[in-house]
Amino acid sequence: MAYYYVEPEVAGGLGKHTVLDSSVHPPAITRLHYRIINWLGDALLESFPALIITRDAASALNEAKASGYECRDLELTVSDSFREIYPERTLPEFLWLSVTGVAGRNALGIADDSRLVISERVLIVLKTFGLNHALVESY
Questions:
Q1: pLDDT tens across 87-114, in order?
Q2: Is the pTM value of this prediction over 0.90?
Q3: Disulfide: which of 76, 125, 129, 135 matches 43 by Cβ 3.0-4.6 Å?
């Protein structure tokens, strides 16, 4: 099976309520607050070292029996500028995508260089929900 590095859309950053341990690399997050500044529409977003995914895309990964991840709740907020630019835009529900798998072995894994690695099957699933602004290259 083919595997791919994926560098997702960065639509914002870690919010002030994020709790992380920066004494380790990558930093370990115990509470995630993601703050959207400008979302282009992808189902998978990142702000190192965190990944978030729409609930619909996460459900599809679960139905596909993908391995190597857990979904958790997070706090999601939007910036004032986002509200000004997109006053009518409704965001989908997002979940924290905690990747626990081994790159190249599980459907989702983290490579030694801290990049996300996904199987071809997961790539196909994610593309159906929107992955237009991610960088994707062979693993």
A1: 998 999 999 999 999 999 999 999 999 9
A2: yes
A3: 129
